[in-house]
User: What shape does this take?
Amino acid sequence: GWTFVKKSKGVEIWKKKEPGTAFILTRGTGIIDRHPAAMFKYLSDFTKKPLWNPQHQVTEEIERVDDFTTVVRDEYKPVFTVAGRDFCFLQSVHFTSSGGFIVSSTSIEHKDCPPIEGRR
Assistant: This one.
């Protein structure tokens, strides 16, 4: 299960070890006083991502599968001795009847989104 770490600036920080790996997952829980549609618009605007993620380098839509599904490349800056990262993923968005939204993503291989040399 998740272990509570601390509360900072109104956000509860939690962590848990991913079984069978060396990964430690982290999540934050808090309340954002905005309508879900406004948050979705802000978070899905690639040009705004550097404002809330300083490690972000570039995000690119590779393919629009349909109105709710896209193939996306995300690139991140290197940190100290760790190489920069690039991800290619399929992302699908589902809007709920209450005005909320669910975003689901999975890593994929795509002919127009090959790995970038020097990145992991």
